[in-house]
Description:
- By secondary structure, the protein is an alpha+beta fold.
- The chain is 35% helix and 22% strand.
- It contains 15 helices and 20 strands.
- Helix 7 packs across helix 8 and helix 13 packs parallel to helix 14 (409-418).
- The two termini are 39 Å apart.
Amino acid sequence: EVGCAQRAVPSNSIATVMFSSALRNVAGKVHAASRQMAPAIVGQTRNLNLQEYQSMELMKEFGVKCIRGKAAFTPDEAYNIAKELKTDDFVVKAQILAGGRGLGTFDNGFKGGVHLCNTPDEVKEMASSMLGRRLRTKQTGPEGKEVKAILVAERLYLRREKYFAIVMDRTHQGPVIVASTKGGVDIETVAAESPAFIIKEPIDIAKGLLPDQIRRVAHALQINKPELMAQAEEQIANLYKMFWETDALQVEINPLGETPTGEIVCVDAKVNFDDNAEFRQKEIFAREDKGQLDPLEKIAKEANLNYIHLDGSIGCMVNGAGLAMATMDIIKLHGGAPANFLDVGGGAREDEVVQAFQILNSDPNVRSILINIFGGIMRCDVIAAGIVKAAQTINLRVPVVVRLQGTRVEEAKVILGQSSMRIISIDDLDEAAFKSVQLANIVNMAKNMQVNVSFELPV
């Protein structure tokens, strides 16, 4: 799902699209008197994503009815779970934090991360083809993600499929229910082509979800039978209770199904949480599948840096999410592509700057580095000292363009000038971005021709 953007960048969910405009911490600031307060110093804002099976486990803890099934980590476990389900209709789903699993391809050539089976032996065979392999989808990039778990569940034949989500939305300054009678399909397509089918119900964060709102949503979902209505209302109430008590930022079910036997069941689930709430949601955060994180993003998270790995060639180190996104836009304007989003924030220490620089330098796709700091709370001399310290401990392999303005900028220039680093210092951001693109192109051309290139100042 970046300061005000999210770690999991791509998504096929309208809930995520609505949510990406939020600053992620609205819920923690509004109605704070009724809840335990967060520490005074809050780090960079990211969000924890749970696997599908973990999301369903959490929902079950709050009384939400989900499909029968469990996660398996070996083929033998998958076989035993299938035997326990006592059915002849199974669905086996690879567990990775990315969409498009059904159309994905494994690194062994096996097609599809979602399959239907009829016997426990078929389930075991399917597990053997998936577990330990890397699944590539439209959202993973060419490297794919390793499948360490699969969900083995009972296949249900649904009469109707709905879409239901609760998201934290900045526009409404609180939670919003997003629902549709068009479930089980790409909800973004529904929103674009048939917006009348999208239901939105804002929730007053101080009052909580009211009974008449629950009934209104259930009716809008065309759940009209009294027995189904009661189930739907209970499910919606339990989902909001989970959303609120766990500091969730998004709870999404697609589809929320109606079975022929008259049950309302969660068939697929996605839940993510505000990292600022980790101090009071330790049990939930302990469930994080760290193997799904990009290696550089994992290092950045441990260093309290807001970092997202992209597929460009220009490494960026900036303070502030807005300035970071503007810097990325200017790079694109000059024909380049950012290799990352890296926001060191307003209170970064020298050691965090060193770590940030090491992350940029260790990315094999980076051909040049652009550092753009506007010193306010963040002092320019701290950034400069961190850059020099990093250069003394790592093998700097690409040219560095630095643009510093603001607090203690003159002291910063002295620090950089007295170092032995070949740094290109430019005061104008547009010129700095243009130069970083030029340098990246030169380095990339040299790499493709298998020749070494070195830079002497002035460039």
